[in-house]
Amino acid sequence: MKSDARPAHVTRLAPSPTGHMHLGHAWSFLIAWCLARRSQWRIVLRLEDLDAQRAHREAEADLRWMLEWLGIDWDGEVVRQSERMDWHVECMRTLESKGVVFEAPHSRAELRARQTPVRDVRMQRDSAGSGGSKDGADAPHEGDDVLRFPSSLRPPRDQWRFTNRTVNHRLALDPGEECVHDQVLGTRVFDPSAIWGDPLVWLKAESASYQLAVVADDIAQGITDVIRGNDLLPSAALQQRLHTLLTGQSTPPRWWHLPLVRDAAGKRLAKRHDAMSVAGLARRGATADRVRGAVAFWLGVCDVPCDITRDAFLEIDMEHSVRTLSARATPCRVDKALEAWLVAR
Fold first, then answer.
1. Which position among 50, 198, 253, 285 has the lowest Cβ density within 10 Å, counted as fewest Cβ atoms?
2. No. of helices (H) and no. of strands (E), the chain
3. SS3 call for 80
4. Which residues contact 338 (CB under 8 A, 6 or more apart)?
5. What is the C-alpha separation between 288 and 294, in angstroms, rounded?
6. How far apart are CA 228 and CA 231, in angstroms?
7. C-alpha distance from residue 219 to each of 10, 91, 137, 214, 216 (Å)
8. Which of 219, 249, 276 corresponds to the end of one domain?
9. DSSP of 128-154, one letter per residue?
10. Looking at the domain assignment, is residue 229 inside a domain?
11. Interval 106-161: pLDDT, tens
12. Same domain? 89 vs 166
């Protein structure tokens, strides 16, 4: 599978329009945008809207407002994953031709009820997240329970096919370590099968799972650099495995996994926390210059938070700042003092 010729480097902003954008989104989007613009990379805006039950146009409007408010631009037309069904089906056909996908009609309740080695594992064992469950439609984040599917539940080989799009399908994943070479965190090693077992790649809702769709679209759009939160670091190992299966090449994107922005209690920000949404902060008096200033402060560019214009933000040596993040002890936290400064009139 080949993608069209692209510039030397391409990154993407890939939000899910399922709720209000918060300071964590502003943090990663501003970093990706500045890094790309300073290095003359192409930027793709991709709406990961496959979760039809949660994606909605109000959230998309909130996203577009935030990007415009912060002065973040991108190249070309907006891409919607929900409009890329044919490509995702083609990728499933590729996996089918390699004999690595099978029908898996088991519900989460059925998996839990069976007397099998299935167990829940957390994406980050030291997390303080919400502990919500995942059905494969969106990205697994810190605190989410991932229900592991053991190889003992694989069906007979005559069901290793992709013919019924209304049934869940899983990827037969062999055990084995995957080295993730991260530009921020260095090299980390994961065994994707130990986390997911056989992960979902197609959903009975007749759409690709998050894990398949993100890899498929990164391939098609020539994405060379993925910049996102470090709660998705384990997913990089699985996505590398999928990338190799789909392309026949061991050339995944470069990974840049950033620290998560947390609230005063140390919990990662989430879309359900409207008080920390960018729009909510703006209504309370925050300005785009101050949000950029908070990001610069977390990066260690300034000793105290201060207003930073769009042009001044672009002057930051973003690559150096990001590559040295792991060596800094200062957390990306919205404590009471920072919140008060953001909204001070």
1. 285
2. 12, 15
3. strand
4. 294, 297, 305
5. 10
6. 9
7. 11, 10, 19, 9, 5
8. 219
9. -S---B--SSS---TT-EEE-B-GGG-
10. no
11. 887 777 776 443 344 444 433 333 334 456 777 776 666 678 899 999 999 988 99
12. yes
Place of tokens 């037969």: 172
In sequence order, what are the residues at sequence separation of 6 or more whose Cβ sits closer than 8 angstroms to the Cβ of residue 191?
A: 175, 176, 177, 178, 237
Stretch (H or E) spanning 115: none
* Whole-prediction pTM: 0.90
* DSSP assignment string, 253-306: PEEEEEPPPEETTSPBP-TT-GGGBHHHHHHTT--HHHHHHHHHHHHTSSSS--
* Distance of alpha carbon 270 from alpha carbon 245, whole angstroms: 33
The helix/strand/coil state of 112 is helix
Angle of helix 288-299 relative to helix 23-39, nearest 10 degrees, comes to 80
Strands of the chain, DSSP E? 10-13, 42-47, 79-80, 101-103, 120-122, 145-147, 169-171, 178-182, 186-190, 200-203, 207-208, 225-229, 254-258, 262-263, 333-334
Boundary (domain end) residue, out of 166, 197, 219:
219
The mean of the pLDDT values for the chain is 89
Three-class SS of residue 75?
coil
CB 150 within 8 A of CB 194: no
Q: How many domains does the chain have?
A: 2
Q: Which domain holds residue 210?
A: 83-219
User: Same domain for 193 and 294?
Assistant: no
Angle between helices 210-220 and 233-247 (to 10 degrees): 60
Helix (H) or strand (E) holding 102: strand 101-103
CATH number, domain with residue 55: 3.40.50.620
How many Å apart are CA 244 and CA 284, to the nearest integer? 47
The reply to whether 127 and 189 lie within a common domain is: yes
Written as six digits, the tokens of 24 are: 């964590």
Distance (Å, rounded) from C-alpha 314 to C-alpha 8?
20
And the tokens for 194?
């130990």
Residues 76, 87 within the same domain: no
Which residues 6+ apart lie within 8 Å of 215 measured at CB? 91, 239, 242, 243, 246
Q: How far apart are CA 241 and CA 219, in angstroms?
A: 13
Yes or no: say if 212 and 91 are a contact pair by the CB < 8 Å rule.
Answer: yes
234 located within any domain: no
